[in-house]
Structures are given as C-alpha cells and as structure tokens.
Amino acid sequence: MDKQFIEGQKTYKKYKIGDSFIELLLIIGTLITLYPFIYIISMSISEPNAVLAQEVWLLPKGFSLGSYNMVFENKEIWTTYGNTIWYTVVGTIINVVFTLMGAYALSRKEFFARSSIMVYITITMFFSGGLIPTFLLVNNLGLYNSRWAMILPGAINTWNLIVARTYFQSSIPDSLPESAKLDGSTDIGIFLKIVLPLSTPIIAVLIVFYAVGHWNAWFNASLYLGDSSLHPLQLFLHKILLMNSPDLLEGMEDAFERVAYAIQLKYASIVVAALPIICIYPFVQKYFVTGVMLGAIKE
Length: 299
Known about the structure:
single chain
C-alpha cells in the first residue's frame, strides 16, 4: 500500500512539473503575442518627444492624444472608413451567398458533373491568370474605378468553398433532402428551409473569413481604384505608413515636431484600423473554431 502511494506521489509530481512547464510556455507565448499590441498602443499615446527619442519600450512615456486628434480630424479617414464598412458588409453578404449556393450544389451526389467542376475549381488554388490579365479583365468588364472591382472578382474563395462543401457532405444527411423531395419540396426550398438553418457554424466561419479579408484588403484597391474617394481604410493606412502622411502634417513648421508626429501617426492609425475587428472577433471565435472543425472533418 505504501509502495503504491509513493509511486502515485512520484507520478503526480511528474505530471505537476509537466503541467507547470506547459503553463510557463503558454505564459511566455502570451507575453510575446501581447507585446506588439501594447507597444503600438503605448507609442500612439506617449508624448511625441519620448517617441522621437525612442524612450518607449513597453509602457507609455507621458500621455498625449495629439496623434489621434490629427487622425480623426482628417476627413479622408472617415471617407475610407465608410468605404471599408461598405466593402465589408456588401462583399461579405455576396461572398457568403455565392459560396453557400456553390458548395451545396457541389456536395450533392446526384449532381453528375460535381467531380469535374471541383477539379477545375481546385486548379485555381495553384494557378491563376496573372496580374496583368486579371487587370485587363476587370477593365474590359467596366469594373475599373468602381466599388464592384473590390467585390465581384473575388466573389468566391476556393478554400472557403471546399470547407463549406465538406461541411455539407459530412453534416447534412442525404435522407433530409430526399425526404423533403418526397414531400414535394423544390431544391431551392430544401436549401433555404432545411440546409441553411442547420448550417449556422459554417455560415459563421465564412462570415469571419470574408469579413476579415475585406477589412484588410488594400492591394486590389491600389490596382483598380484610381479615385481616392473610393479607397478603403487599409490603403489610407498604407499611404500613411509609406509616405509619412504629408497631408496630416500640414501646418507644422517645427521640424522635430513634424518628425515626431509622423512616427506617432503611424501607430495611431494602426490602432484605429485594427480596433474594430479586434473587438468583434472574440464574440464570433467560438463559431469560428466550431465551423472549421466541422468543415474540415469528413466522416
């Protein structure tokens, strides 16, 4: 009895040491992950002179909201904010609707051409038409310098389509559509009244994937949107980071002040651009994880 107790104590200590080591690694990983966020926020609210002197390493040095005042007083940032919200909302709705319809059709066994179509769709993950042909296509379709140039060319993402198709195949029993057809329901009725109500997890994960993609999009805007009034927020942020935001620094005659605010404006703009998506993500994270797991595993 005593021998078993001693062995049990030794085993418990081994597991305790192992758990403590894992917890230590997780704490270190968390600190490494949080440090860039803390650093960016600290740089954005510190005194400009402390930022210029590179005195900020973790916590703020002094307190100043001058960079945020300059950002929010600029009319262009509100225009780009509105554009990004429009691209995110409208684009996500179109993306999710098209992806769900395509994925459901390709998941049905009675669709004779589904395998051939999936081969062609999968090829696009490895080979694209190229930047110049895509630009010419967008231009010839009359989408250049139009809001739809940010949405229609990428209406369906191949990976998201495959994930949604796998979800339908693994989570929607074939007996449900068959029973509905025997009761006289049409394919559209089955999709709207039976499939969609059972697909909340995959709908949530598609919304997260597409919404984050639209919120962070800037490269296509730099190619297809010549009118600055159509630019998204991320392209405005890109201009600030690379061009030191000359428009926001007008009226500053002091060279040191101009350089200090030029540095600080970059960090303030990053906070303004990233804060909304950071605040929303925790509320949809559980659906995101559930949707990925259900869509990635096929029984």
